[in-house]
Request: fold
Amino acid sequence: MESVLAHSHELARARREAEALDAEARRFASRRGVDPSLGVFYRDELGGAECVMGLSVGLTLPGSARRPEQQAAEQLALRA
Reply:
């Protein structure tokens, strides 16, 4: 029985799928926190006659809207 389970391709695939779904659930859990981002951009317009430089700031605030995604991923990982 142990030899069959050790060499079972179906079991190995199911374990990999469960690990992937668990990683996705952890990713959703990590996205529930504050996620600041900062970006700088530079652009030439009108054939180089105008130059635009800018700064972008993004701040994802935590909230209850992301909790269902995490719970669904956790349930899928548990079933797998």
